[in-house]
Specification:
Helix 1 runs antiparallel to helix 9 (351-362) and helix 2 crosses helix 5. The chain has a nine-stranded antiparallel sheet with strand order 5-4-3-18-17-16-15-14-13, with helices on both faces. A three-stranded antiparallel sheet has the order 6-12-8. A two-stranded antiparallel ribbon has the order 1-2. The longest helix is centred in the middle third of the chain and has 15 residues, at 180-194. Strand 14 and strand 15 (306-310) form a beta hairpin. The protein has nine helices and 18 strands. By secondary structure, it is an alpha+beta fold. It is globular and about 55 Å long.
Length: 375
């Protein structure tokens, strides 16, 4: 363990980090500075706990665990702490769908109505690929909210009813709108095609084979070992988050995992089995281009990832509202995974800021604040 600093939580212990498989000074001269970079942003952003892995070609070159998973009991973050991934789930759902397409079980140009009965007339033009790329014209949130408040528990049937009752925001294929609703519906497609629940299929196909033993789907009634408590920073102080709602199907946000398990996930993405090479590549193929300036050659939404092209290089990234960030610079073979237990709110330092700063510490040719493709 390396003592790297102090957190501003009263009588907190030192920030702790572990660096494994360190590269030589000639290939990663700034690897030792990752701890300092993370500690600084963690303090400025009021993050109770952070877990970070920097990887090259799927192998960790730095693993850091900082701060607390639970402030009440001063439980430190470790590599085995389980965090809610929130929207980092989407790249996993997208890979599952593209894998089914690779197997010939679905086509990306199939209509959503081939898999769900009784759909609204406006859904007739929606394709599987439009759901993957947020171009289906669907709204973001869709759950029924009696009296303006979420229910404590939603069945899949209730969620589908809510989705069908939610007005569309555009004609399919004409615009881009980030949509939890679309990725929920992809979960229904997975269940229809495989005959399994989303949770069981993801375990059998993707999580168990590489040994991801701590990875699971959100279940508010389950006793989850090493689970991090969620927090929110508002009105100048940290407060406990109140994410207590239970959803039967959470293909849009519901995977929970640890840093150790996501290191295994990244190893699979970096060096996949033969049958996943093409589906993984297709997750990073830009489907909706965004306007950009002169700093990027291409920029847009792929399938479960934001994607940036500069020259021959491709970078994909995504964040999650629960406080997560993931960046994969595929050309350089560098990736970073950031897990925190502070919600990612507008106007606050983002977990993605930690991710990019950590990558910049390892490779200063990468931008400290990420690619600014709109410039």
């Amino acid at each position: 363990m390396i003592v790297t600093g102090m957190l501003g939580f009263g009588n907190a212990p030192p920030v702790l980090a572990q660096t494994i498989h360190p590269e030589t000074a000639s290939t990663a001269p700034n690897i030792a500075s990752v701890d300092a970079v993370v500690a600084r942003l963690m303090d400025q952003g009021h993050f109770p706990g952070v877990a970070v892995a920097v990887l090259r070609d799927g192998r960790p070159i730095h693993i850091g665990a900082y701060g607390f998973a639970n402030l009440s009991d001063r439980v430190p973050v470790t590599r085995q702490t389980v965090f809610e991934l929130a929207s980092l789930t989407k790249q996993m759902t997208a890979l599952a769908v593209l894998d089914l397409a690779q197997q010939g079980l679905i086509s990306l140009e199939d209509s959503l109505t081939d898999y769900i009965d009784g759909t609204p007339d406006g859904w007739a033009g929606i394709t599987i690929n439009q759901l993957l790329s947020h171009t289906a014209g669907l709204a973001h949130r869709f759950e029924e909210k009696p009296n303006g408040e979420f229910l404590l528990s939603y069945s899949t049937e209730q969620m589908l009813d809510g989705a069908m009752a939610t007005d569309m925001v555009a004609e399919p294929g004409t615009d881009w709108t980030y949509s939890d609703q679309g990725y929920f519906l992809l979960g229904l497609v997975i269940e229809k095609v495989t005959g399994q629940t989303y949770a069981d299929y993801m375990q059998d196909r993707f999580f168990r084979p590489p040994g991801m033993r701590q990875t699971r789907i959100l279940d508010q009634s389950a006793i989850v070992p090493h689970l991090a408590r969620g927090y929110i920073f508002e009105d100048g102080a940290l407060h406990r988050g109140r994410r207590v709602w239970q959803f039967e199907l959470t293909s849009h946000f519901g995977v929970m995992s640890s840093l150790d398990d996501l290191i295994l996930w990244e190893a699979m993405l970096a060096d996949p089995p033969a049958d996943l090479v093409e589906p993984i590549r297709e997750t990073g193929a830009i489907q909706r281009q965004f306007d950009h300036g002169e700093t990027c050659d291409d920029w847009g939404y792929a399938r479960g990832w934001m994607a940036t092209r500069i020259g021959d290089g491709l970078t994909v990234d995504h964040g999650g509202y629960s406080g997560t960030g993931y960046v994969r610079d595929i050309g350089r073979g560098l990736s970073v995974i950031v897990l925190t237990n502070r919600e990612d709110n507008e106007g606050q330092i983002s977990p993605m800021a930690i991710a990019w700063a950590a990558l910049n510490a390892v490779d200063p040719t990468l931008p400290r604040e990420g690619y600014q493709c709109w410039q």
